[in-house]
Design a protein that fits this description.
The structure is a single chain. By secondary structure, the protein is an alpha/beta fold. The strands form 2 sheets. The protein has a 7-stranded mixed beta sheet with strand order 5-4-3-6-7-8-9. Strands 1-2 form a two-stranded antiparallel ribbon. Helix 5 links the parallel strand 4 and strand 5. Helix 1 packs antiparallel against helix 2, helix 1 crosses helix 3 and helix 2 crosses helix 4. The model has no long low-confidence stretch (mean pLDDT 96). Bound molecules: S-adenosyl-L-homocysteine.
């Protein structure tokens, strides 16, 4: 079957049927060739309803989770967005379709290199990658209208809240053995935290030792 029809089936069955109705997110995920972000030995499973290994003990999230987090971040076309945990770069590409500028940090250099290669091939020239620890965010380009974190810290890193614009959204899995996906909104009067559902992400680490 052609990848385009697999992709449209993914959007229909895994996203629309589960109430993801943000049209820009659905359009982005209908377009991006998810199979190009995984190793060729896994590409036949790229559109299935599951996470997949991307090497170095890491995984690309299930499509539904990518769709949910991208919609929860409420990104507008002129926005600047920060992502922590580039991984294979698939979520990064989705953010690239939604925002004007995307900054993404990955702690494993080899994954950052692979993601850079695919994102360049697909012409995401407004997506900027950096290798390093995302706990401190990327102050140089702050404030961000949205921050999406795809590795789980035990608590929300304060630098990420600092680097959020007013009315910005921070979408982040938090916890150790039990993680919750949180959506924080930076209102003028303070932070509003919405708890969504339980998730299982890889831990957010301080450094990568091979
Ligand atoms: N969004 C990714 C998910 C990758 S899994 C994708 O679609 O493929 C989470 C990623 O976060 C891993 O690649 C892991 O190496 C990275 N990570 C873990 N701790 C980190 C940290 N402190 N800073 C930046 N990236 C981190």
């Amino acid at each position: 079957m052609q990848t385009e029809s697999l992709r449209l089936q993914m959007v229909q069955n895994q996203l629309r049927k589960r109430k993801i109705d943000d049209l820009r997110v659905l359009a982005a995920m209908s377009k991006i060739p998810r199979h190009q972000f995984v190793d060729s030995s896994w590409s036949h499973r790229a559109y299935q309803d599951r996470p997949l290994p991307i090497g170095y003990g890491q995984t690309i999230s299930q499509p539904y989770i990518v769709g949910y987090m991208s919609a929860a971040a409420q990104i507008h076309p002129g926005d600047r967005v920060l992502e922590i945990g580039t991984g294979c770069g698939y979520q990064t590409a989705v953010l690239g379709e939604l925002a004007q500028e995307v900054y993404s940090i990955e702690v494993i250099p080899q994954l950052a290199d692979q993601a850079r290669h695919v994102l360049q091939e697909l012409n995401y020239s407004h997506v900027h990658l950096k290798t390093g620890d995302g706990h401190q965010g990327w102050a140089e380009h702050a404030p961000y209208n949205a921050i999406v974190v795809t590795a789980a810290p035990p608590e929300v890193p304060p630098a990420l809240i600092d680097q959020l614009a007013i009315n910005g959204k921070l979408v982040i899995p938090v916890g150790t053995s039990h993680q919750q996906l949180l959506v924080l909104t930076k209102a003028k009067a303070g932070i509003v935290t919405q708890k969504t559902f339980s998730v299982r992400f890889v831990p957010m680490v301080k450094s990568f030792d091979q």
